Amino acid sequence: xxxxxxxxxxxxxxxxxxxxxxxxxxxxxxxxxxxxxxxxxxxxxxxxxxxxxxxxxxxxxxxxxxxxxxxxxxxxxxxxxxxxxxxxxxxxxxxxxxxxxxxxxxxxxxxxxxxxxxxxxxxxxxxxxxxxxxxxxxxxxxxxxxxxxxxxxxxxxxxxxxxxxxxxxxxxxxxxxxxxxxxxxxxxxxxxxxxxxxxxxxxxxxxxxxxxxxxxxxxxxxxxxxxxxxxxxxxxxxxxxxxxxxxxxxxxxxxxxxxxxxxxxxxxxxxxxxxxxxxxxxxxxxxxxxxxxxxx
Length: 296
Known about the structure:
CATH class of the largest domain: Alpha Beta
Shape: elongated
Number of helices: 10
Helix content: 40-55%
Structural class: alpha/beta
Low-confidence stretches: none
Number of strands: 12
Strand content: 25-35%
């Protein structure tokens, strides 16, 4: 067993396909198959059950995957430590973020980060919090930013930034503060299932004694920008992060309405897999976020 075989195994496991692994690693499919066969013979176990073109990892493969990832990550860490000694840090960061921090917060921080580390490029996958956590659990990414906690036993969460959820109105609510039950009077624009904003909104409304099922839901949308456009067009009100509406409130296109005697606060978190080690450049970004985030 060597590191090359482990890389091939990891690619096959993640892609659930010999052909996709071959394309990813720029190898032929027979070469991929031969390495997996050699690995199975050496370990004296079947790693993938084959059903035509479909392959399903066995229990042994799941165990090997966790250890193989750790071995490959340690090797990468060693290379990066040696690189650090020789030159300025460089490489590609691939992270995932839920919509609010990914769209409205991280871009400001990345600008400052790249002034310090200009040789590090950053790719951000923006989705909902549930998808970000799934990406961490599957090994697709090693660092994420989310607005709610899921799978708490498998994911480590570090507080990143405070947020406030507010009612956002297209100007047809004259008051700046309303009673909780008044939300039910207006058509409501809902975020999609899996959204951290939606999960936190439901938690707060439940605390106020508001039955979610009684909301007059006009439509459900999968992005904050879409919700904002719907509000501007008079479809209804919604509850959004105050970070996402700074420009609109500054120019008066949207109005903030708060609920009497309640502040719907929440925290954004830096999320990492509890059993995975951050490589050097990821650790640099992680520590940078720790230092800079709450100063915004």
